[in-house]
Amino acid sequence: MLTNDISETQKKAKSKSLIIYFAGSIRAGRDDTGIYQQIIHYLRRYGTVLTEHVGDSDIETGGETVLTDRQIHDRDCDWLMQANVVVAEVTTPSLGVGYEIGRAVENEKRVLCLFRPESGRKLSAMIAGCPGVITADYHDVSDAFHTIDAFFQS
To answer: pTM score, two decimals?
Structure first.
């Protein structure tokens, strides 16, 4: 089943010019899944989102169970390299999301990180201070949508 999903995602990616990698917390916490879903849906206006599963409410904090950690790593790194841009929701701190952002910057991808300061958390200096990352605070998803529009129009 998952193999077919991946094939379908890759087919869709080839039919659109802009390929987007969305990053959001999975194993570090799933509290923002609803927000991820809305952002992913909005991003589809601009192209194919390779990582729609990040917004899947059926994936719990334990993460995907069909694939091994190595398979997930290799698949996600492959998708990351295919992507033109990365959009990450970084309110919930995640080692995996930080790793993906670092790899994206290293490979000169455009990166937008969205952060909700109302969470009471502070954005990591490694993200906020990185010259290869555009960071933006938002208060609700409509704010995030405006930021996404500006990101893709620049």
So the answer is: 0.86
